[in-house]
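Input:
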Amino acid sequence: MLEVIATLDREVAIYLAGETIRVTVTVSNLSRGKQGLSEQLAWGSLQFICERTIGATSYSTSSTTSRPRPTTSVTKSAATVYSSPPNILFCELQLGPGQSKQFFCDQISFQIPLSRNGIPPTFRGHLVKYSNRVTVAVSHVQEHIKSAHLPIRIIPSVGLETKMSLPANPFLTSTITRPSVVETVMATVDDLTQARKSLAFALTHNSSTSRVALLTLPKKAYKLGDDVCGFLDFNGATTPCVQYSATIETEEHLIDADVEEGKKKMVKVHCQTAPICTFSPDSTFRLSIPLTATPTFSTDSVQLKWKIRFVFVVTEQAYDVHLNDDVASSAAPIDVPVESFSWSTDLLVLPCKPQNAALIDNTFPNRISMTV
Amino acid sequence: MFIPNDRASVLQLPKHEKDSPTADIRSIVANRERRLIAVATNDAVYIWLANPQLLLCSIGVIDQTFRETSGELKEVYWKPDSSSIAVTTNQNKILIYKLELRDDEQCYNFTDPADPYFQRNSPELFIKGSRPVAHLHPTIIINLADVPTCCVPSRDEFLVCLRNGFTHHVTWNGEILSSLSFRASAIPFSVDQLQSKSENVTSKSTYIIDSVYAPLLGGFAIVLSDGKGALLTSNDPNFAPNAILGVWAPNLKDATCCDVNHKFLLVLFGCQNGDVCAYNIDELNGSLVQSFRVAPKVTNGPDFTNRLGPVHKITALMNGYGFAAVWAPKKREETSTVADSSPLPRLVAVFTPFGAQSFCNLEGVIEDHLADNENDDMYTAIEWGPEGFQLWLGTKNDLMMQSFVRSASCSNPIMEHCDRAILMSDSQVLISAARDREAEACAPHSVWNHIDVAHEYLSSNWPIRYASTDRQYKHLVVAGDQGFAYCSLSNRRWKIFGNETQEKNLLVTGGVFIWNDDVVGVVGVSADTDKSHLSFYPISQRLDNRFASVIDLEHKSVMSALRDDVCAVFDITAQITLYKLTAHEETGRDAFTKVSADIVTVIRINEIVPHPTCIVSLQMTQLNLDQRGKLAPAFYSSIDTVLVNISGRLITLSLNEEGKLHQPMVIASYVEKMWHDRCIVSQSSLAQSLESTWKGHRRNGSNVSMHSVSTASEPSSPMSHSASSHLSNALWIACGAKGIKVWMPLVPGKRNLATQEMTFIAKRIMLPFELDIYPIVISAKDCLAMGVESQLQHVARASRSQSQMESITMYGLHRNSEVFVHHLLRQLLKRNLGVFALELAGACRSLPHFTHALELLLHGVLEEEATSSEPIPDPLLPRCVAFIHEFPEFLKTVAHCARKTELALWRTLFDVTGSPNALFEECLELKQLENAASFVIVLQNLETTEVSMDQAARLVKEALEEKEWTIAKEMVRFARSIGSEDIDALTPPPSAKTSLSRRPTVSSPSADSSTEFVINRFQAGAAGRLNKVRHSQSTDQKDPQRKDSIGSSKDKTALSRGLSGELSPQLTVNRLAARMTTILEEHAWHLLNNYWIVDLGTKLNNLFFVVVESFVGFFWAELQFDLPGLLETRRKQISLSPKSTNDKCYLVDDFALALTRLHAQFSWPYPVIGSQFVHQIEKKLGNIRVSQSTASLNGLLSSEPPEVTKPKVRRTEKTIVDLNGARPIRETDNETSEEDVEIQEAVLERVRGSASELVPILDRSPSTSSSMNPLFQSQAPATPSSCDSRSLAGDWQNTDFLVGEKSSRGNVQSSRQIELMLYLFSQTATIDWIFLLCLISRDERKLRQEINVSMVRRSGEKSFARIRFACSELGRWAVEKCCGYVALLQAFDAHLAVVAEQAGVADVKYVPDGEKRKNSIKSKAEGRGRKRVDSGGTKLNDSFTKPVMNGKGRERSRSADRAHKSVKRYDDVVCAEDALQKTNEDGCSIM
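Output:
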């Protein structure tokens, strides 16, 4: 019995594209004692693979068209988008009872190709799924290959295209550590997500005369984990708003040549609030972009857009004070006829530091083991 | 603990009259269930629904005559059944309104239009919850004799206190029960309820201004008009006048209002001076005892001393876990006409039950930004909404509702002792991240895992009351009004009851929990049968009663606790029942987990529980620390103690030897929260023997090992095991305003284990300490307290009128943390328990903030004892210093402490620690240069100038030796920043006082460019808190930055001085700086003499950096003087001393050694023969097998499989595994160019070793490019790589042809460094180094540029002759050692000859001093095993015509490279053929 354990260099398998994944593989012979057997492996290798799955479960139920789909399977059609060349860890490995051997990261590491021409981020959409993983495979002599997969969450990077300029003095460059991929990306993200100018939207319906609200959003670009704080001003509205909902959602478009499928878009709601604002002259909302989500990205086959969507429920008159003899008593209306209006605007969601994503996201363990 | 979140929403009150003035809110009162909120303005009453905030009905008093007779409305009082409200007026009237509620009818039914486009589409927009139709009807007007001041409503009647001193019982029908009326002046008051004599209120005019019913205290809490507070008790249920006894609240003279905390049995009084004081009842004599007195405080915001007026209103939370108060501004006195300060802004603060402030609305507020508030702008009314999730506030104009969050552990003992902060709002649960992951994240303190409770559940069961997770944070279960719901935290999928009637039927009364990872436990009541039960629902199944295991309970339970497999339930008869839970896996098709429960113990504690409401917390734990042998009597396996918190008194319940209950023991009072690791985990790692006895009972899942840290990380302390048990067994207690306490066991360490029989119950000690934050989690394993606070954040708002942005504020939740281990150490030291302090510290050694904690300990003690005005009989400082001395961090701690304390305290410190000079010496000895640098600053202030200068100089020398450039840099900077007049002024040892004024000691972190990136980001998150001394783990990262604080703080002054100094140069140099310069000079010579050019460059440039950075104008001259100046002197010396002894001239003596050192330092590969050249010959000579040598030339020796014979073969391969870079290469043309770019990044990870050896360097050459060489050759060799062409802007292809291609060059950075050094040397005509650098960079053009006639003139004939000699010397060396250089040297030599002729010095010869060279060989004995060919001035040509063949084919083949077309003097073809033939012969041997 041999146990093969692959461990990553960080606690949670979340990486930015462009970073290097360092894997340590430990092979140990589990048998102990005198009667333990010496075990032999022909070879072991590591490989990084990105797979795409098009067509999800929701698809098959909703598609009523009789058009033949490209695959017969309704469950899953996986295609390898990227695969790194296999890294041979060892050949002809022999381990005595209780013996174990480690293969360290500096020999076995991958740089995740940059997203531009490289691999898409890890994404679980309705229409398309991208899954990234490191596969560790070993084989006994004359036997089948045994492999285990360690899923990796990859967050797309921004800002790596622009190279950092070197400091003027060549001697100082050696003492100053160059910013890592994470630092470069985060510097770009910080720059992009800085609040520069608030955005104000005067929301009206029917005609421009019927004002509903004045919306202020501090910025358009956010990073994962940020809160979108907005302000709605109902002062001066001609149609009172009794309730509104603000939703952060992603829209998934297929960029397929297939027109019918290409039109299809799936919306996923990430965060929602629906406060009653019948008596409020203004309202603030806070919506957080989950750290587990995928930032804005697009590949050849899918585009993911982030949006903030509002639905305003408006009425003519929500509450009326009516006089009754000498006391002015009033009561809430039983029925309130309402109309709803929707509005949305795009947001740009940028990557966060992978260590931040690791704070919340526990779905990507950093090690995998198999017994052969 | 309750803190606000987000922003308060303003609620507009509809006006009943068009012309009525703005609504002046007088009173906000919630009904018993807190579903309805009654709001009274001066002329109207409104009934609001608490959630959603909708106005149900209102009634306005608009009739003018009525208003005149009845006056304005004041206060509202609810009849407990919510059917009526009473409203007092400011005239002699009380109005009673009937509230007609129709629960079966709903109002605010939003109806969508027919047009589907305008219909709502999201379920969140459909409000569910009950919205009863309500109407207010005026029913009764009660006429009174005087103005009513306050009322106390109860079921049948209400008490009305009048201004004339009378108190009447009035029924809700308006009848005054005159027989029960009494007068305040007639009430006998006493100090206690037993013996003391009672007295009546003297003044007849005294009346009750506020009163609250306090049933659990046995009466009413009242405030009298003269400012006294009291408790009215009576043994008569009807409160008959003759049976009333008043109990004074002692020392209370200025009360204004009061409220009662029922759970903690506290009477809260608000005072005229703004204080809130609380009283509890002494059980012995029934007197009132003050438990605390607090005032609102703001650490970062407007100062309200002299502005804080009386407490306007206090309101305690219904569940008792806090109270809130609002204040009025101080009344301006008539005399002070000067508008000295603006009136107090609106002020509201929230406190924990025992008075720790958890929130104040002015914290973090800049007063100027507050709107111009008119006088008397204040919160006029305050009330808590349901469960404390809302705080309703009224002002003169507005009604506001602020949402609040609370910690999930309130009234939920299952969530106490969590290692994460878990908060809950009315609809959300927030969980903090695992702390061990926070270190690397940015701004982790504001990252929360927001879990929104499923709308389907929440919409009809708002708000959530209980939230629990399991210890691994896998599942979350919440319970709202009815039923419960749970979700998996990994995928956020919620499960709710499929059957809504089952949900409606279940009322959770005692909490929910997750047991065993797969079962949800619920302690609740069935609504239909009113039966209490403990139910278990398997997580794997649908949420349905079909799968539930129900255990019937006797009584309604109000609280539950869980530890391992035991669940404790506290019920309304004050009975604690311990159930042992057992899971049974059902077999069969529809298998699910069934749970059975067996009663372990029943504990009746009704004698010590005044009322079941009074239970604050319930825990099962193990306090007995006995490790072996006899088991102490226990309720169940590892549970020997049940801890109950009854109204703030923490009581232990345990068994005696006979199995009877011990007398309950109060271990602490005023306890509002406690943490005890033992409550969730058993002593598994500590007591293994014990474990085996009950292992069988334990299930795997519910147990987390908390010992991982304490046992796994033990830096050198043999006692850490037992010491950590001090902490993990400690009981942490939060006492509100009274701070934190720890009840720590004093476990004797292993030291006397052998001798002592350890059958004892651990002795424990109670240590108090203070924290700046209010802890929500106390982590015993890393001695950190974590708190949460609401911080203001600004949100932009666009205003419609003026199109500009304003900002509004909302609250965000941030965690903060604080170290506290130093408090414990100090307390232990104070009590002469140094041994335990050592054990404790030993256990904490591995913590990242340990050094910081030591520093805090020293600093705290020093500050207290040095500033004490009276002599201290038994000073703690020596003990403390001795304690710290036990740790290797001693020097660092003292240094840092000194840097952070005032100069005036230094004497006190160093009197105890020993002189700073001695400490400095110690630092040097231990090579702790950073600490030494700190001490230099101390020395500079305490010692004579001479001493400090000497020491500073020593430090610089040491730093240079150790290549600690930054320290050297800082020291030089420090030296230079001292003005020369300072040095002179300091010549006599300065008294601490005088220098105090001059030298700032407060450190300001300097922006070190290398870490700036990280630091900035960290601070960005902590903005606004900078003035507080807070500590978190990350502070340690900042510490290294502090070392140069003085330097940076002086930059500015120095700079300004420097600017002026340009004009008056004598100011520019102080003695210390001059000395520094000398040292640097010497070191520079030293480096130069030893050929450490890179270090020289680094040093130079570090200093250069300093100079350029801050002292541009000032020290530019210094720089000029620095190295070029030195070299200039050398040049002169050379020309002066014809003998050219190397004593002071620092000439390159051993050129070969110098060259190899250059290679090593720049990690510059040695040249190899150009393979293109070889290829040409290959073509010429046809079938000669050269591939292997080519391969070897390309540096692929180690990785190339032997069967690859031709370079072309590799093209067809898909990938090559190259072990050097461990990166696979795809061999397509595009990829190649891409790889080419990537190579440079890889290379930039610089090879550090300066003493690298000759052969490995070959391998170290960029691997990928070398493997690409065959490809590259097929293209034009002139194709420059982007970087190399830039840096080596010469005709390198020319020399490349001579010595191989670009692949064997060093990286870009090295070449840039070489270039810079070359520039520097050429400035000063340091011809020998120019030659060497040109040689190493293989830059013939550069050589031509640099070494010409004028250079010869400048450097002198001697030097030039040396170069020529060196050239030939190296040529000989190269033949032997590095054939790649041969051709190059020939070319160089040719050039030198030409120059020599031009300059007319061709005949000048250099004869080296042979003996001296031997010496130098000896001194460089570490050398590279090079054999020295004795030269004696042999001609260069000879060496080539008779090349020394040493049999190694590889090197010989390289020598072929010397044949370059441009070098016409040599018979190239013959040499090459010769070499190739040799290769052919023994080519295999090179593999």
